[in-house]
Amino acid sequence: MSIGPSERRLLAQGGIFxxxxxxxxxxxVFPILLAAGGLLGAQTRALPxxxxxxxxxxxxxxxxxxxxxxxxxxxxxxxxxxxxxxxxVTARRTAALETPGRYRGAxxxxxxxxxxxxAFAYVLVRPRLSAAGGDGAVTTLATLDPGFVxxxxxxxxxxxxxxxxxxxxxxxxxxx
Length: 176
What we know:
Elements lengths: L4 H31 L6 H5 L1 H11 L3 H5 L10 H17 L7 H6 L2 H16 E3 L10 E3 L5 H30 L1
Antiparallel strand pairs: 1-2
């Protein structure tokens, strides 16, 4: 079975919209972290991109899985809303395909998963900086259980985009 030009277009658009959704989510989370009074303290100011990426990944309902404060669960609407929207757009832009809308919307996983994996690696391995300056030494969170890493990347990069991107695609198909 070969992939035709229509399917390639679907995967390309899903990849682009999925990656853009992740980046947009990180950019949306940064002001939320700052408004929360430096939710993560001095780290937010010293490593804003790292903390925004980490904050966005936490919003994928990690509180349910890993015991973060339950108040964070309400903020899961940020990634869920973004993924539903890009799933909707992807499904609408590829409406000529015979593929069901939910599958076309779930194609955002093609871009969301690699960006999630890169962001997770960036959060785990980064130069050591502090609010007062840093020495640039590399620190890692190598003590993390590999199961935790796989579950976190899978939950954030696969489960969320498939469910919510698929929901957006389903809605797009129903609106046609």
